[in-house]
Amino acid sequence: MSASTEQPSTDERRTLWIVLILNAAIAAAFFISGVTADSSALIANGVDNLSDTAVYALGLIALSRGSLWKQRAAMASGVMLLVFAVGILLDVGRRYFQGSEPIGPTMMIMSLVGGGVNFYCLRLLHRLENPDVNLRAATTFSLNDFISNGGILLSGVLVFWLNSNWPDLLVGLATTLIAIKGGVDILRDVKTDIRRNNGYGTK
C-alpha cells in the first residue's frame, strides 16, 4: 500500500528533475545563440526556458508540501510567465526601433534542438497520472515552449529567405501572446483548484 502511494511522488520528482536540467541547458543554449544571431525570438525562448527552470524548482519544493504550497507554486509560475511576457514585449519594441540583423540558419537549428527537448519534456509530463495543479502548470510551460519553437523555425526560414528582421520580431510578439495565455490559464487553474479544495464545487 505504501509503495503504491509513494511511487507517483517518486515519478513526479524524477520527472521534474529531468525537465529542470533539460530546460536549464536549453536556456543557456538559446541565450548564447540569441546573442550571436541577434535574434529576439531566440533570446525570448531563452528567458522562457530559464523561467521554466525556476518553476520546476518550485515544483520540486512543493511536491513534499501540502496542497496550499502546490497552489502557491503554481500561482508563482503563472505570475512569472506574465512577467516574462512583458520582458519579451520590451525587447521586441527595442529591436523594432533600433533595428536588428537576425541570422536565419542559427534560428532554424536552435528551433529544432529546442523543439526536440520540449517534446521529450511533454512526453515525460504526460506519463504522470493524476497530476496536481503544479504539474499541470509545468505541462503548460512545456507546451508553450514547443509551440514557440515551431514559430522560430518558420521565422528563421523567412529571415533567411527575405533577409529581413520582421519575421523574428513577429515571432517574439507571438511568443508574448502565447506566454500571456499560458499565464492566465495557469492562474485560472489555480483558482479552480482552490475552489474545489474549499468545497465550492465548479460553479
Write the layout of secondary structure elements.
Elements: H1 2-36, H2 40-63, H3 67-98, H4 104-126, H5 133-162, H6 166-197
Short description:
The protein has 203 residues and is mainly alpha-helical.
Overall outline:
elongated
Structural class: mainly alpha
Beta-strand share of residues: under 5%
Enumerate how many helices there are, as a single number. 6
For this entry, what is the oligomeric state of its chains? single chain
Strand count, sense and barrel status of the largest sheet are: none
Overall helicity? over 70%
The number of domains: 1
Mean of residue pLDDT? 81
Please give the alpha-carbon distance between the first and last residues.
Answer: 35 Å
Total beta strand runs: 0
**How many whole angstroms does the radius of gyration measure?**
18 Å
Low-pLDDT regions: 1-8
* H/E element sequence: HHHHHH
Domain Cation efflux protein transmembrane: 16-190
Main location: membrane
Pfam families: Cation_efflux
Keywords: Ion transport, Membrane, Transmembrane, Transmembrane helix, Transport, Zinc, Zinc transport
Describe the structure.
- The protein is an all-alpha fold and 203 residues long.
- The protein has one domain.
- 87% of the residues lie in helices and 0% in strands.
- It is built from 6 helices and no strands.
- Helix 2 packs parallel to helix 6 and helix 4 packs antiparallel against helix 5.
- The chain is elongated.
